[in-house]
Each structure stands twice: as C-alpha cells, then as structure tokens.
Design a protein that fits this description.
alpha+beta; 21% strand; homodimer; four-stranded antiparallel sheet; six-stranded mixed sheet; 454 residues; 2 domains; 15 helices
Chain lengths: 454, 454
C-alpha cells in the first residue's frame, strides 16, 4: 500500500467529508417525480468529480430513465482492468418527523455521519472516488485500469440497467468488478461477502364461493378457502423445515466442508436480543448460519382471507391469497423452481377450491465466487490489515440483481466490498455511515486496488 | 281453522299492508345513535297496535338499552299459554345507492314488498299481530292465552334481553314459544325448522420476530408466523373434513336414522349455480344436508399476515392471525369446545413462534326440539295445508341466541315458524318479503294457534 496515498486520504479527510456532504445534499430520490432534476444533478456531480480526478471519456449516458455515468482510466498497457459499479440515487426520506437531523444536510454525531444515502450508496461510492483521487494526486496514476459505472435507478429496481449493459457489452468488458453496496456482519468485523442468493416468487389465490357466505348456513358444504390455503401451505414444508415441493433441492450445489467451516466461523446474530425470537428453526442437518447463507428458502411474505376487523364475522371467505418468495442458491434456476411450485399447487390444491396463480416476473439467480480465488483472498487480506481483525467469509440471503447481471454478461468475478453495518438504517429514518468504516474502508480500497495490479 | 278469521285477513289485506308500511317507515335502526328516538317510536307503534287489538297490560319496558314491548292476553282459564317473541329494530340500510326504492318507503314490485325490515323482522311480527287482530275481531278472543315480547335490540346482539328475561322469569312463563324470524328453504316450500346450531369462537395470533424482517437476511433462522399459522390450522382438520381437535366430537348427540331421513328429504341447494362451487366437502360419513344441519363445524372466518399490497415485499411477517368460529350441535358445550381448541393451539403451536389467544365471549348452545313433538307436528300440518305441499323438516347451521335462552330459562319448546326465503336480502340492499308468504303465513299462524288450543 502506498504510504503517500494513505497520508493523502488522512490529510484531506475534512475536504473529502465536505465533498461527501455536498453529494448527500442533492435530493436524488429516484422514485420521486418532483426530484427528477435532482437525480440528474447527482449524476452530474459524479461526472464532474470523475473528470476532476482525471478520468477520461466521462459520459452521462441516457438510459430511458435516469442517466448513468460512465468513465474510464485505461492508461496501463499491462495491468488488469477493474469495473466499479455504484449508484447515486437514494430512497425517499419519509417519514421526515422520525429523523433527528435534516436527511439532506449531513450531520455528524457520535462517530456517525447521518444523511439519506450516507451508507446506501453515496458514501461508499465516494470512498472509491476519493481513493482514485488520492492515487492520481500522489502517484499520477491508478494502480490498475478502471471503468466506472454509476447508475441512478438502483432504488427503483435498475429497470434500464440490464438492457443498457447488454447493448454496451464491449465497453464494459473488464477483468473483475468491485461493488460497495453492502455491509459487514457487525461494526469493526471485516467481512468478505462471497455469495448472494437468487430469487423467485408467485402469488396464489384459492377461490371458493363467489362471495363471502354465512358460516352457519354453508359450513360443512362449501370448502373454506382460508382452511384450504393453510392446508396447501402446510404441505410445502415439513416439520424439519425442509421444503417438500418435488425437485426443490435437486439442483442445489452441495455445501463443501470448507465453506461450512467459513460460515460457522462467522458471528451469529443474537435473535432473542434483536428480534425477541428465542428459538431458531434452521433446516434439519444445517446450522442457522449455513441455512441463512447457503440453503434455499421458501417464505410466506403475506397471507390474507376474509374478515380482518375487530371481533367476529361468521363467514366462509370467498377467497384466500398467499404471497410466496424463494431465495435460491447456486445451481437452482429461478424459472425451474417457480415451475415446480406452480405444479405443486396445481397438484395439491384441496378439492372444493380453485387455484389462481400469478407468477412474479422479477427473478435472479444466486451468485457465488470461489472464496479461494486470489482476488478474493487479496480483498480479505486488505480487510484484515485495515481493520486489524481476521476477516470472516459470509454469503448473504439477500439478492443484488446487478451482481448476477455482471456475472452472467461477462463471467468476471464480482468483489463485494461493503462497509455498512447492520445499524446503518438503510431505507429508514436516520440512515448513517460509521466514520471509522469510512476511514478504514478507504484504506482497504487503496490497498486492494494496489494488490489487484500484482 | 276459523273461516271467519281467514275471510277477515283476506278482506282487510290492504289495510294490513298499509299498517305494515307504516311500521316499516319508522327508521328503527338500533345500531344508530341518530335513530335512538325512531327505535322507541317503533316500540310505541307495536305497543299501540297491541292495545288496539285488545291485549292487556301493554308495557314499554326499559332495559338499559332500547325498550322492549310486553303485552298479554290471558282470558282463557284452561287453554295453554304461548309466548310470541319478535323484534322491531332493523339493520342500517346502507349502502343506500344500491336500493332500487327508498328503504323506508315500502314499495311493491313483482309480488314482493321491498323495505328494510320487510322480512327481518317487522313483516313477520306484523303477521302475528294481524292474526291476533283477526281473531279478536271475528271471535272476540284468541284461541290460546298469549304473552308477547317484542324487543328493539336484536340487530345489535340482544345484549339486554337475557338479564331482563332472567329478572322477569315468572312473567314470561308459558307452555310454548313461537318465533317468526327465519325462513323456508325456498319460496313455496313449507319448512319446519326444528334445530339450530350453537356457537363458540376465538382468535389466535402467532408472534414471531418483533417486527417484519427481510426474508433474505432472516429466512432459515426465524420461523415464519404465516407458515406456522398454516401448519397449525392445517392440523385442525384432516382430509376427511373431520375436526382433529381432541374431544371435539365427544359430546355430539348421535344422528338418528329417522332424522337423517328428514334431513336428506329436504331439498339441497345447487351450489354450482348459487355460489360457483362445483364440489361440496361434507364430513366423511355424512351427506351435505346432514353436515349442514346436524354436524359441528370449525371455520376460519378471517386470516391475515404480512404484506397484502400489489406486487411483492420480501419479508418474514412479524405475526399472523386467524379468526375461528365453530357451529355446535346438541350435546356440545361451547365452553368445553373453546377450551379444547385453546389446548390444541397451546399443544400444537410450531416452535419458534408464540401463540396469543383471544377467547370470544359470545357463545350459544345448540337448540333442538323433537320433530315428533305434537306441537311441531301441528305446525307442520298447518304449513302443509296453507302451502299445499308436504312440509320438509330441517335443522339450520345458524344460531339464534334467544331460542337457546328461552329453552334454557323455561325449557318450553320453541316453534320456529319462519316465512322468509333465501332471496329476501336480509341485512342487504333491497330487502323484501314475498307477499305470497305474507298471505299464506298468516293462514298458517291462524291455523296453528287454533290447533294449539286443542
């Protein structure tokens, strides 16, 4: 690691924080009609900064939605090329009354910087740009070639990103990608995230009588759709928390002993303290960490039927609905799993009701990179060195669609270097970034980019 | 049957209909604060009419809520004494825009009289009073001694009736009771209703994490309360539609062959035509009619958990709730059954969630009168004669609490002579009374009261 770079980041810390505060002050709420021009303004802020740093070919690319910023620095003839992805749009700040300070006037309290976007993702984007700046100012070059892609639609589903990347496949070709849009398992615990789950879902409605009917006059003749739905859902999992939909586990990648060790070495959340849940329920044969990180799940996200008001209403409901989503692991194909659940529902719907299924069109495959890959090991070493603590290796039950897109378009490894913490209040009031992670994270990035060149 | 009485009813039909229209014009909506004085006005209307007919001791009794009208005619020394119960309050008329005519200005179309309360219960109350009037005008006396109890709180649960009856047990002592607050299985089909189901219920909420959590980050560790609720509910019934709660059927009165014959002789509804339900699901070993009329049921009336909006929200819900009610048959004690379900829930709640139970305080025992009882047979003969068709004997899955109260306070048989039809739109817009049933019903009552004297 270049001492000069570290010194530059240290000496310029206040300027960098001010830069970040300016970035955070732009209300780039991508979902808001009212803030359309602010979103573009944040894109322009990023483009200007990249130009200032010394990037070439800085472009504000039109996508049909909010623009995306492209830039490149490709001066090395031999070095590998990295692709950095981030996003400059943010979630709405509402409910405003729950913020302790103005969400768009960043404020520092007890070691945290509070603002909408502080952690997700403006703060983490700025850490990369600051490291690029430091290298250019001190060494006159970046350690590796870099392409930068910073979009403005992540918080609204990145609807225009995949078609754009497909159309610009050549331009974005690189040797590896880096994304900092995630977090560590806890404050101060360096974390190497090397896998994400995929995703599929559907909604099922069981139709019974064509209107709610009197439970006294029809109970015993007409099948109760709420009871039928319970029976159907209950059949989808057994008492060992195993999904009983035929074929569900068929294509799951086996969990290697080596990975099991990594997962079980990661700290476990105290669910009783954080959620009031005394008993955990992992799939039989797996620990909680293993299930969370590397086993597929099928969850009921919502369920409703009949009367929900105070007291009683003695009806047999006309229908009952459940919203289901699965988290998938490497090997599982979202379409195949969705098909399997649809077949199961068609097969197992109790008699007397009729099933209507709405397939969810959003889906994602799981992503996993080999934890022994040299680049991953380099990132882990940078993390361990900067935080002074052994890095844990984890996979995450969540899904980040762009990771799968990059993986499938170019099959380059995606290095997920997230510096958030579980207390960052992403998407919620009082979002913040731990300043210690801001500082150490930049050291990690400076070191990692340097190592990438070796 | 007295020919003079029949002639009187026939000759005075228009006057009686006008009387009914006046009664229906009073907006005696018991649930409405705004119509408090209208409710009393309807009580006074009833009291005035009873006085006019020649009843003695006509009282408007204060109950703490809406008043109740008592009257008596006890001139016979030897004849039995009947107790007639009815109610003069009505449901709200909303939504008003769905009515084809003013709900409080009765209007006749295609053989039906349309107005709120036409069938439930002002129309049927007036039929009794008209028959009493006819007897007094033609024979100068009623065929039997009569006590009359017409309340104003039936549509809000008769909360003050039971304490009032308990406090006035002596005054209401009689040999039999007659109630016309129900209906026939279809228009023109004379129906002897000789049993009602009882009722108990509860609400169960399964609590998981203390807030909705991310299904990716917690799926596999934390039990899903919606899935847990499905599993719990699914265990309460088997695939033969038998309730599997231990003890549920223990005290059920056996269904005699004789009764089975009666029930199966009653016409069955065409559920495909009326409700779009192709397949019926009676309990194994019983026909649909038998299950509807004489087997207990356990129904989910409402169920809710998590996200109910458009699209997906990938959460594990914090909790899941189901509202359950049972319809009970003779022999079953509501408290015992509620206890059995509570024990079942406590026993069978899946691990990882905590059950919270709200017991429903309303309950009722089932009511049944021996179909071979002479008074029942007399009523059936009156029905058959007036309608020109063999009377069917049915029991009903619904509950009428006052029937059980009368039965348990005095153990007198309650003769349920209802003249409504399934198309009367009770509690709904365009409530109506079939005028053919109004006319024939009065003949039935005239004949039945006469037969009671014999």
């Amino acid at each position: 690691m270049s001492e000069a770079v570290i010194k530059y980041l240290h000496d310029n810390r206040d300027t960098l924080l001010d830069k970040l505060k300016d970035f955070l002050a732009i209300q780039s709420i991508s979902t808001s009609q009212e803030h359309q021009s602010d979103v573009r303004k944040a894109g322009e802020f990023v483009a200007d900064y990249l130009t200032e740093i010394g990037f070439a070919n800085v472009q504000i690319e039109e996508t049909g939605g909010h623009p995306l910023v492209y830039a490149e620095w490709l001066e090395h003839e031999q070095a590998p090329t990295g692709l950095f992805y981030g996003h400059y749009d943010v979630q709405p700040a509402e409910p405003l009354e729950l913020w302790n300070s103005d969400p768009f006037q960043a404020s520092i309290r007890e070691g945290r910087l509070y603002a909408r976007g502080a952690s997700d993702d403006k703060g983490q984007v700025l850490m990369h740009l600051a490291v690029f700046e430091a290298y250019m100012k001190t060494e006159g070059q970046l350690p590796v070639n870099m392409k930068v892609c910073i979009e403005g639609e992540e918080e609204i589903g990145s609807a225009n990103l995949l078609p754009y990347l497909e159309a610009n496949r050549e331009a974005y070709q690189a040797d590896f990608a880096v994304i900092s849009d995630s977090g560590m398992v806890s404050a101060g615990q360096p974390t190497m995230l090397y896998g994400l789950k995929g995703f599929t879902g559907l909604e099922v409605t069981l139709h019974g009588p064509n209107r709610d009917v009197h439970s006294g006059l029809y109970g015993g003749a007409v099948k109760n759709p709420a009871a039928a739905l319970s029976q159907l859902l209950a059949k989808m999992k057994n008492e060992h928390e195993q999904v009983t939909v035929p074929g569900f586990y068929d294509d799951c990648e086996e969990l290697a002993d080596h990975e099991r060790k990594l997962m079980n070495a990661a700290p476990s959340e105290d669910y009783a303290a954080s959620l009031g849940v005394v008993e955990t329920v992992p799939e039989a044969g797996y620990t909680v960490n293993e299930h969370l990180m590397a086993r597929p799940t099928l969850e009921v996200n919502g369920m409703y039927s009949g009367y929900q008001g105070e007291g009683i209403k003695t009806i047999i409901p006309s229908e009952a609905t459940a919203k289901l989503t699965c988290r998938l692991v490497p090997g599982q194909d979202p379409q195949t799993i969705q098909d399997a659940i649809v077949s199961f529902i068609e097969e197992e719907t109790p008699k007397g009701v009729r099933a209507e299924i709405k397939r969810e069109s959003l889906s994602a495959k799981a992503y996993k990179v080999d934890p022994d890959l040299p680049l991953i090991q380099k990132a882990a070493t940078s993390l361990t060195d900067a935080f002074g603590k052994e890095t844990v290796f984890v996979r995450l039950g969540g899904s980040i669609p762009v990771v799968e897109w990059i993986d499938s378009l170019w099959t380059m490894p995606v290095i997920l270097l997230g510096f958030g913490t579980p207390d960052d209040n992403l998407h919620a009031p009082n979002e913040s970034l731990l300043l210690d992670h801001f500082d150490k994270g930049m050291r990690v990035l400076a070191d990692f980019y340097k190592k990438c060149a070796q």
